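FORM 12-B: Structure-to-Sequence Request
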């Protein structure tokens, strides 16, 4: 949970680097919270079956949009890639696969052009 909160504390910090652990724990908690909110929306009757979003899950999705982008930027920076690579996710299926491969790769050792290695802070 600390990694999830750490991403939220860096709400709109698009520069720097993010470890795999920071990125994937954020993704995990984000998915779990989203599922819980969809269940609550379903029980309360605010879920729209066509879109799959309800009142609470929609508000949550909007609230974490910028932190999600920011941690994605920092994760790509950690692997030595430009954040422009996030745009490859717009290509159906192949784009998502490429992004997953990039996100699971290990960090560049030492400093890179995006900053010092976050592994040294841990």
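FORM 12-B RESPONSE
SEQUENCE OUT:
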């Amino acid at each position: 949970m600390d990694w999830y909160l750490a991403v939220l504390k860096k709400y709109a910090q698009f520069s720097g680097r993010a470890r795999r652990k920071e990125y994937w724990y954020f993704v995990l908690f984000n998915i779990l919270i989203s599922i819980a909110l969809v269940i609550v929306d379903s029980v309360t009757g605010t879920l729209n079956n066509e879109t799959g979003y309800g009142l609470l899950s929609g508000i949550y999705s909007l609230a974490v949009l910028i932190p999600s982008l920011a941690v994605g930027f920092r994760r790509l920076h950690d692997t030595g890639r430009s954040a422009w690579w996030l745009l490859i996710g717009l290509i159906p299926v192949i784009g998502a696969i490429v992004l997953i491969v990039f996100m699971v790769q290990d960090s560049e050792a030492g400093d890179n052009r995006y900053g010092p290695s976050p592994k040294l802070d841990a």
